[in-house]
Specification:
By secondary structure, the protein is an alpha/beta fold. It contains 11 helices and 8 strands. The chain starts with a helix and ends with a helix.
Length: 270
């Protein structure tokens, strides 16, 4: 098993080599399957993990999330990042503490978003920037590289304001973010404009839009990283629900064989 420092170096290097896909497992088994399939890094899904516990998104809580991180960090040899929601608190100090705790749990990267989780919906830009700055300062003094992702949540909360989104991302970059992310961007024009407006790697949520852009198309726009959010968990649960309700058992003929699954799990364990 690679050390955390080795994983951190691998992860930082990935961001320098072009565009890569970073899928989102929700448990130890899905992490090992993704590793066995050849992916080079993993990041958690807040929604997928919460729903695997039987609660809705954002209801797992920091202690459960950190326990989840500790479990996944030892599951594979791949670098692990995490969706750290809004830092599990409103204060900049909460964000800094969450970064420190996440790194102690095995993370080499993680995101802090500007959604409040309350009636304010989105923090004002000054407060949001202070939160990213505190997280960045905590990340910079860790004993290994840590890729801090700053997320602008405008588009996920009914605020499709590209100018404000770019202004926020630029402020977060200036505050020390290593990667920028505005989930919900769906067009080549929006994504290209964001990539041209900042000087650090941009993460995009794949699969968005009437005709989702491919990884190659996103790379041509300047995207460095493509995450999948809760899509994989949702795809698995959709198949689960459909199969559970299929009294003809027609789904059985199309299943991946158990031996193949076991082989991927073995390969994914390193």
């Amino acid at each position: 098993m690679k050390s955390q420092s080795e994983k951190a170096t691998d992860f930082a290097t990935l961001h320098e080599r072009g565009c890569f896909v970073i899928p989102n497992p929700w448990d130890r088994g899905s992490a090992r399957l993704l590793s066995g399939l050849g992916f080079r890094a993993l990041t958690t899904t807040s929604a997928g993990y919460a729903r695997s516990l039987g609660v809705s998104d954002y209801q797992a809580g920091r202690e459960h999330v950190l326990a989840h991180v500790r479990d996944l960090a030892t599951a594979t040899d791949l670098p692990l990042a995490a969706d750290l929601e809004n830092g599990f608190g409103h204060r900049p100090e909460d964000c800094a503490e969450t970064i420190r705790f996440g790194a102690e749990a095995g993370l080499v990267g993680g995101s802090i978003e500007d959604a409040t989780g309350d009636d304010r919906v989105i923090y004002d830009i000054a407060e949001a920037t202070d939160r990213i700055r505190a997280a960045a300062e905590a990340a910079k003094v860790l004993p290994h590289p840590f890729m801090l992702v700053a997320r602008c949540e405008n588009y996920l909360h009914g605020r499709p304001d590209l100018a404000d989104t770019i202004a926020r991302l630029q402020a977060y970059q200036a505050a020390g973010a290593d990667v920028l992310y505005a989930p919900g961007l769906s067009t080549a024009e929006e994504i290209g404009e964001v990539c041209r407006s900042v000087d650090v790697p941009v993460n995009v949520l794949g699969g968005i839009g009437v005709k989702p852009l491919s990884v190659c198309e996103l790379a041509e726009l300047g995207v460095r990283r493509v995450s999948l959010g809760s899509w994989l968990h949702s795809a698995a649960m959709t198949a689960f629900v459909n199969a559970a309700q299929d009294e003809s058992f027609g789904y059985v003929a199309d299943l991946i064989g158990g031996r193949q699954m076991d082989q991927w799990l073995k390969e994914g364990a390193g």
